[in-house]
Amino acid sequence: MFYKIMTAWIIAAAAIVGATSAAALEPARAYAVSGECGGMAATRVVMAPGLCLGLVWQGVGTEGPRMPRGLLPLAGGDWLVTDLGGWEAGRGAVWRLSFASDGAPRWRRLARGLSMPHTVARGPDGRIYVSEMNRILTLDPDAADPAATVRTVIGDLPDNRLHDNRHPLSSFVFGGNGDLLVNVGAPSDRCLDAAGKPRTNARGACVEEATTAQVRRHAYLGNGRWAEASTVFASGLRNSIALVRHASGTILQAENSVDLTTPAHPFDEVNVLRQGGQYGWPYCVDLQTPLPGWPARQARCGERDQPVALLPPHAAPLDMIYYEGVMFPELRGRLLMTWHGYRRTAGRITAVETDEAGVPLTDVGGRYAIYPRGSLAYPAGAPSVKGKVLTPGWDRVAGRQPRGSPVVMAVAADGSIWVTDDRSRAILRIARP
How many CB atoms are located within 10 Å of the residue 122 CB? Predict the structure, then answer.
């Protein structure tokens, strides 16, 4: 009954969105709805057979997050949503999404003035943790005044100074023993100076490599406390926003590779992280290709830890989760991945086959789809992820839908897959038609 009521509410709200979009929402960003998707209003995005994409909420006006990113389901059907707010410090927030008896979404802002919050997750102690650009915090969403419960858990993470080519967002995943593995992004694209020459230390290594472009480990001290000091878990990682831990202990990272101007290169990648691993940034991309600006003798591509698989160029993977829900038994155990980038390979959610350790299965000689149509080949002999695209029709269609910008996914109690779309200020839900 709840979802039936919600469907009616969203269809009515969609009419309001259409009427006010010129003033409050770019028409190119609006999702048109028609029919029903598992009890919610259905978008018109073409999905894989047996799936549909419902519209939970799309922002109009000042109510709710400006750039929804992280998602966490709470008991009773509520959700926590992190709001980047914009690419400037101090504009972010954490919101609580609930639903009225008629199905209308209701927003309550729990904390504001945050600097680019992204990940929200429940820790080994049951508390809620959130990553900001330069710290990890905790808060109690059920408190009378959640903002008063905000406490810094790990502070003084690098803030990257908010310059061009920065990778300022922090992300984290909990290790099997409770340790925090925290992304510290690279402060530049390729570690080059204004003349395009490598910025090196006395050893000939990138000067930024010692303290950034890493995943750091903070030891768990128990009872909601972690060591402020950290050790380097893995390095040579330009942007590790997408991190996931499998039940077997495997840690996967999806790398957003460098921003070369060609849409066909370089390829993004999936890495199995190991203690002490070095994964190539800023020296190498693909399998053993030196980056422009770094001579092969300095790049030493043969010494890097090789990716387990390549992803399409500029796909910009931002999230990975292992699906264990009840709605889609055919997806159980698969690795779901969002491709957020703005180029022709992005706007997709994929379901990747994995082995018993959660490592992606691969193909050789594979191809990847591009918008508006067609496909291109991966490099000869290169492994690519084996699986399927759940959202094959999420390209921009005038008057119907924007190009998808999926960020973070979370699985609801009913097994549906919720996802944030930050560019279109929307929350969507993959369900059965």
Answer: 14
β-strand pairing of 277-278 with 231-235: parallel
Using an 8 Å Cβ cutoff, are 336 and 351 in contact? yes
Residue bearing tokens 């978008």: 43
Angstrom distances, CA of residue 130 to CA of 11, 81, 120, 151, 218 = 33, 10, 4, 10, 15
Which residue in the block uniquely carries the two structure tokens 């790398």? 255
**First-residue to last-residue Cα distance in the chain:** 16
* Torsion angles phi and psi, residue 175, rounded to 5: -75, 170
Q: Which of 228, 239, 298 has its CA nearest to residue 268? A: 239
CA 343 to chain CA centroid, Å, is 16
Which DSSP helix (H) or strand (E) runs through 65?
Answer: none
Q: How much is the pTM?
A: 0.92
The first and second tokens of residue 116, run together, are 């680019």
Q: Tally helices (H) and strands (E) across the chain.
A: 2, 35
The model's pLDDT over 97-152, given as tens digits with 9 standing for 90+, comes to 999 988 899 999 999 999 999 999 999 999 999 999 889 999 999 999 999 999 99
